[in-house]
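Dissemination and training. As part of the outreach component of the grant, students in the summer workshop were shown how a complex can be specified as a set of sequence lines and then modelled as a single object. The example used during the hands-on session is reproduced here so that future cohorts can follow it. Participants entered these lines:
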Amino acid sequence: MKKYTDIQVLDNHDGTCRVCNIHGFNLDKTIRSGQCFRFNRVGNIFTIQSKDKIIKAIQKDNDTLLVMSNKMEIEDYWIQYLGIDIDYTGIPLLIKGNNFLEEAEKFSSGLKIMKQNPWETLICFIISQRNNIPKIMSTVEKICRLCGKEVELQEDAYYTFPTPEQLIDGIDKYGEEMSLGYRLPYLDRAAKAVLNGELDLDKLQSGKSTYECALTELEGLYGVGPKVANCVALFGLGYTNAFPIDVWIQRVIDEYFDGHIDIGKFGEYAGVVQQYMFFYGKYLGK
DNA sequence: CGCCAGGGACGAA
DNA sequence: TTCGTCCATGGC
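and obtained this result:
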């Protein structure tokens, strides 16, 4: 998969930067397509958090983003995090002739697969089980508030995403108060596996391991099945071929693909196609 | 294989 | 107001 090399970050010297040549990247579609759960939108201003970092971002036009952060952090972290640098021009050829996918691609244009922090992605998608997006977001916010550290931005208080250690301490301290339900032991055991070195998420990233290897490792965790493992592989580990199947995707497959889809032909873009199906299918569903 | 387990938000009825 | 459903998984 090709990467854009001409994206420019221009410092406005007022605490903000302009990110130019973003090749049609759409912030709203990307953030609100159900990949990430730590954001807040007021009008066209998105506040986005990852680990201990935080930005405010506004889409100015098709080719420009205004981001409140420093140039280095935007270049080294947020552009990759938001998936702005990945070129999807190979997709139209792969879905040619399939009416549903062509419509979905049109509807989703500018939506990118994010490259989130693996640990954060794992915890968020364990929490996502059998929950809807508003509930996932409030639960994630809650574990950050209870277990993370307070940080301030423009006189507002925010909370960092807890480290494995902080999460374990928080679970000991607050337990059921965290309203995690049956997911509580899943989170506890995942955090302990990372802390004691049993699970090295960094080594599972694309380029350092394989999709099959990563999936096996993830599914070995208590409370992690194929759905969550594929979400972590796709949104956190960089395996764009991962194809998580949730109730929405299953509904789309049943309704528009006669109950079966051959994802092999989408190759490394399978996960992107899946996200188009999710985003468009959910829109059609309501 | 089928069923059940926390819980809370949300929309349909 | 009640009821079904929501980006699942493990235990039985």
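The CA atoms of residues 146 and 173 of chain A lie 9 Å apart. Students were then asked to discuss how this feature might be tested experimentally.
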